[in-house]
């Protein structure tokens, strides 16, 4: 009987609240913003999907299809979107590590809320510029300013990230010492020779991990450092905040963990806790404030 099938499921509102509470721990979103997102995501799903979500909430070893995970905390789908987000995280790690207050993710878009004191320095650092040491900022990044936010995008792609509460005035101040062409956002400056000659990020895993961590900014009070250490491996380290084991548990969660699942803790040493991703074909070495990690440099970040 239909009423029996319905009775097997917890109240729909209870499931929404549990998923919203889980996602908030990762993204630091407000309840008022995350609840509508979860309601909209769950609206078209069937009974089987709801049961999968319920099972994963109660069992951290549950296996959940990627399309179901995307309902709860969407990860970037397009490589260009992941590359843009990885570039933003790298700049923040070096110059404004405490910049982000919360993230609001969609599969093809990301909104970041930036702390007031970081808005101007972060935006100024993101804009690509040629210096005596080479190109700094994010190659190919351009900006569409609006009255109360700015939209960052990669020229010639659909990749976009919005910086909420970053006003047009802040944007104007950020490019005050740049070529006046930057102020004409309707006709953005073309790619420079330095940008064209910049080798695109070739480490797909590091780019994917960096993008995922930016979308999970609630886990880190300071932006983490993501470094490509080998073709199928990367290293993540951070200062302050949660312990390495706590972050590892979060990143291996069946619903809100890293997108390359199943992820599992594979190895622990005095310097790293390594998790295996993508069915064990790749690995991510984590090192938090409770572990001693030597300084490293790499493609997507440096310390």
TrEMBL record:
Report which superkingdom the organism of origin falls in: Bacteria
Q: Mind telling me what this protein is named?
A: Uncharacterized protein
The lineage, from the top, is: Bacteria, Bacillati, Actinomycetota, Actinomycetes, Pseudonocardiales
């Amino acid at each position: 009987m239909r009423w029996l099938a319905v009775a097997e499921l917890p109240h729909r509102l209870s499931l929404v609240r549990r998923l919203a509470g889980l996602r908030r721990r990762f993204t630091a979103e407000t309840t008022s913003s995350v609840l509508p997102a979860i309601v909209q995501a769950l609206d078209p799903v069937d009974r089987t999907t709801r049961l999968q979500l319920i099972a994963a909430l109660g069992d951290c070893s549950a296996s959940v299809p990627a399309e179901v995970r995307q309902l709860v905390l969407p990860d970037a789908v397009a490589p260009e979107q992941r590359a843009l987000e990885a570039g933003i995280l790298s700049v923040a790690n070096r110059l404004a590590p405490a910049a982000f207050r919360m993230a609001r993710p969609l599969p093809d878009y990301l909104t970041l809320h930036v702390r007031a004191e970081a808005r101007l320095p972060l935006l100024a650092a993101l804009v690509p510029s040629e210096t005596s040491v080479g190109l700094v900022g994010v190659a190919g990044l351009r900006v569409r300013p609006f009255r109360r936010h700015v939209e960052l995008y990669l020229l010639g792609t659909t990749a976009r990230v919005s910086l909420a509460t970053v006003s047009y005035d802040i944007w104007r101040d950020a490019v005050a010492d740049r070529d006046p062409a930057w102020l004409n956002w309707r006709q953005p400056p073309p790619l420079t020779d330095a940008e064209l000659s910049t080798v695109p990020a070739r480490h797909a895993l590091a780019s994917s991990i960096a993008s995922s961590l930016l979308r999970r900014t609630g886990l880190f009070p300071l932006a983490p450092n993501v470094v490509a250490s080998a073709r199928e491996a990367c290293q993540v380290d951070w200062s302050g905040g949660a312990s390495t084991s706590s972050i590892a548990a979060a990143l291996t969660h069946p619903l809100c963990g890293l997108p390359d699942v199943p992820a599992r803790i594979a190895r622990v040493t005095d310097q790293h806790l390594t998790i295996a991703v993508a069915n064990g074909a790749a690995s991510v070495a984590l090192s938090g404030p409770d572990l001693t990690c030597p300084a490293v440099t790499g493609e997507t970040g440096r310390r």
